[in-house]
Amino acid sequence: MGAKRQKAGQFVVVRTYSAGVHCGELVSRDGKEVVLAKARRIWKWMGAWTLNEVAAAGVAEGSRISGEVPSITLTEAIEVLECTEAGAASLRAAKWTK
After folding, report:
1. Distant-in-sequence, close-in-space partners of 7: CB < 8 Å, separation ≥ 6
2. What is the pLDDT of residues 43-84, one digit of tens each?
3. Domains and CATH numbers, the chain
């Protein structure tokens, strides 16, 4: 049984080698290069121990999620996680908090 690949348009969390963690709508993936639309950087997350939990359930108050940019190209992606509806809704609604 092969690994499931994410499809364009899905909301995903991407962990990179050196550019941190980002979330957004998957535009394309080619090897380690991932392009996201409506992208946000996840600087700090609360309410989850792992990125798997962030993708599944989202983040809690106290998280630091950047504002949205139209698109970003990430060149050293090492993990791409498909978000559940709950995870995507939480990440889309998250604000930068202190």
Report:
1. 26
2. 999 999 999 999 999 999 999 999 999 999 999 999 999 999
3. 11-93 (2.30.30.100)
Among candidates 5, 7, 86, 80, which has minimal Cα distance to 48? Answer: 86
Beta strands in the chain, from DSSP E residues, in sequence order: 11-16, 21-30, 33-44, 64-65, 69-74, 77-82
How far is it, in rounded angstroms, from Cα 9 to Cα 17? 23
* Euclidean distance between CA atoms 82 and 53, whole angstroms: 11
pLDDT digits (tens, 9 = 90+) for 79-95: 999 999 999 999 999 98
- Is residue 55 a contact partner of residue 81, using CB atoms and an 8 Å limit? yes
Summarised one tens digit per residue, pLDDT across range 9-44 is 899 999 999 999 999 999 999 999 999 999 999 999
Cα–Cα distance, 89 to 54 (Å, whole number): 11
